[in-house]
Every structure is written in C-alpha cells, then in structure tokens.
Amino acid sequence: MEPNEPTFRTRWDVALALYGTLIASLTLVPAYGVLHGFTPELWGWFVLFLAWNGLSITAGYHRLWAHKSYAAHPFIRVLFALGGALSLQNSIQHWCSNHRQHHRYVDDVDLDPYSAKRGLFYSHMGWMLKDYPAARTDYSNVKDLQRDPVVRWQHRYYWWLTTATNLGLTAALGALHGDIWGGLLLIGILRLVLCHHTTFFINSLAHAWGKQPYSDDNSARDNGAIALLTYGEGYHNFHHTFQWDYRNGIRWYQFDPTKWLIRLLSFMGLTWALKRTAPEKIERRIVEMQRKQTEERIRLSRASNRDQWLDLIDAEYAKMVGVLNAWAQCRQQWLELKKADLKAKWEKTEIHSRLQHLEAELDFQRRQWRLLTQQFA
Ligand SMILES: [Zn+2]
Ligand SMILES: [Zn+2]
User: Fold this and answer.
1) What's the mean pLDDT in 85-90?
2) Closest among 77, 128, 152, 67 to 103, alpha carbons compared
3) Given a cut of 90, is residue 113 above it in pLDDT?
4) pLDDT at residue 2, as a whole number
C-alpha cells in the first residue's frame, strides 16, 4: 500500500462469500466426492448450470445489457436475469454500471473499478473485497437499462432470486436425485466458484497476457487460451476497441460460444439487431497497429538506413489504406445496388467488375504489406 493511500472498509460479506465458497470447493466438494460420490445426473446438471451461469454473464450481462450489442426476446432476458442471479455477481444494473465505468476509464487507478494497473489480484477479485470508491455507483450511467422491466425486477428481487437459485434450486435438484448435499456442493458451490473465477479472468488475465492486434491504448489483450475459459471473452483487445460488436472472436477459428449462441438465437427470432463492425474498419485498425509496431522496431534497430525503411513503411501504409478505402466504398455501392432490384443493370455490371478489380488489388497490397512488416517482426 502507498503511504498516503486511504484505508477502505473491508467488505466482510463479500470476503466470506468468495473465500468461503473457494475453500469449500477445495475441501468439502472433493471430500464428499471421494467418500460419497456424485451421480452422473448431478454431473449433468452441474455442466448445464455452469453453461447457463457463464453465458448469462457473457451473452446477457455483458454483451446484451452493458454494451447493447443486440436485442433479445423477454424470454431470453428473463433466462439471463435468472442465470445472472445464480452467478452471484450482483444485479444486472449494478454489474453493467461498473462495467461501463470500466470501459470509460479503462486502466485509470482511481476511476476504473477493476483497473489492471493496480495488479493482477486487485483486478481479479481484490477490488470487491474493500469498499473502494471506484466501484461505488449511483446508476446514472445505466438509466437506459432501468427502462427494461426485466432489469428492474431482477434488481428489486436480486437477493431473493440469488438465494432461490443458488440454494433452493440446487438443493431441489439434489433431492430429485436423492442427494441434497451432492446438489448443494456440486451444482451449488463448485459451479459457483468455477464461474466466478473464469469471469474474473476477463478483468485480470485478459488485461495482462496476450496480444494487442487492434490497439495499445489500454491494457486489454487478445488471448485464445483465456477465450476457452471465458466463453469467448478472451478476445478482449478486440472487445475494448469495438465494444458495440456482438462478437469478441471475429474469425471462424476463434472460440466464441457466446457469439455462436447469440447468432443461433437470431435464427430462431429470439435475438435481433446484432451489431457488427464493418470489416474495413477492423482491417484499418490492424494495419495501423502493424505500422506503429513496425516503426517502433525500426527506430530501435541500429540499421543505418532506418529513415529509408520508415519512408517505405509510410508509403506502403498509405497505399494499403487507399486501396482499402476504395474497396470499402465500392463494396457499399455494390450492396446498395444489389438491394435496389434489377434496374440499372449496366451500372450493376460496371460496379461489380470494379469491385472485383479492387479485391484483386487489395489482395496484392495485403501481400506486399505482410512481406514488408514481417521483415521486422
Ligand atoms: Zn465490455
Ligand atoms: Zn476489460
């Protein structure tokens, strides 16, 4: 602690909940497993609750409410609100207020509720253990969410819902399979602890470990390993750069089950208005970052012809962005023409062949750019 840092009240209730469940999951759960065993049915419920819990936070609290990256049917919102109460991470309203604050003041030691600049433990769970001012909120940044009756209902009955789902529902499922304690320990405690810490990784590890392909304005990182543990939220550098996008992992090979769920639900008419960043915007950010990183490396190198290299990078960058912009503009024209029926057939052929030409040019430029920047990688 800094010598002048004020001391804050310890949140014993939070500490007891976080450490109590953690210790129980490391002692009582394995002991019960060895001495008594858990039935396959309980393991099945455990997996289902783990997914319900985790996806309610990632698809619900995070991408639906905090960022409004899509809209969802009331049935889905209630399901996420219940899964969120089950996760014991505070109400939607409170969580989203803290999260919007995190994006707005990211890395600020005084204003970001879980600032990564205060260390790994603080950003993981330390921020909840004391009454730090950064995490206090008057909900003025979630007024839009307060108009959602599901959000208001969940906030009002939060403790009832949390108790009913964590204790009532898990004990009832245990009783259904003739093992109340098994239900409480496995579906209740172990599921809760796993869900807590995997979510917390997004604030701790995803701000410390990984790559920054889109921006180095803040500490957020892209990390495929963290994505595996967090239902796809490990592509956090992308997320902090394009926070309104319903996707975090934008490539087909990136593990983002939260995105897959939202998309699947959209086919069923249960989610809609999915927001996506235009591909040229994403590519421009990547190229900008590559230019920045390459130029830094050239400046640090002892090469005598550094200035020539820097000029070359500048020239190739300008060409790359020029072609990218021309392609994006032509693509937009083409999409609009396609929508506008069969009229202007001649214009259609004209634009289409221009688009094909620009695509080939862009491909060529991309290769040139890659060859040039890889020399300094
Ligand atoms: Zn976010
Ligand atoms: Zn973050």
Assistant:
1) 96
2) 67
3) yes
4) 54
**pLDDT tens-digit series, residues 11-69:** 999 999 999 999 999 999 999 999 999 999 999 999 999 999 999 999 999 999 999 99
CA of 67 to the centre of ligand 1 (A): 7
Instruction: Dump the DSSP string for 311-323.
Output: HHHHHHHHHHHHH
Q: How far is the CA of 276 from the centre of ligand 1 (A)?
A: 15
Has residue 239 got a pLDDT over 70? yes
Give me ligand 2 centre to Cα 112, in Å. Answer: 10
Across the chain, what does the average pLDDT equal? 93
Which residue, 314, 241, 253, is CA-closest to 282? Answer: 241
Name the DSSP letter for residue 10.
B
Place of tokens 């009955």: 157
pLDDT computed for residue 336 by the predictor: 85
232 CA distance to ligand 2 centroid (A)? 13
Q: Is 90 left (phi over 0), alpha (psi -120 to 50) or beta?
A: left
The two tokens of residue 243 are 């926070």
pTM: 0.92
**Region of residue 178 (phi > 0: left; psi between -120 and 50: alpha; otherwise: beta):** left
For the chain, counts of helices (H) and of strands (E): 18, 2
Nearest ligand by distance to the CA of 239:
1
On the CB side of 109, CA atoms within 13 Å amount to 6
Q: 116: CA distance to ligand 2 center in Å? A: 8
Q: How many CA atoms lie within 13 A of 158 on its CB side?
A: 14
H-run or E-run covering 38: none
CA of 204 to the centre of ligand 2 (A): 8
Distance 200 CA to ligand 2 centre (A): 10
- CA–centroid distance, 20 to ligand 1, in Å, is 28
Cα(128)–Cα(91) distance, integer angstroms:
14
Taking the CA of 243 as reference, the closest ligand is: 1
Phi then psi for residue 243, to 5 deg, are: -70, -15
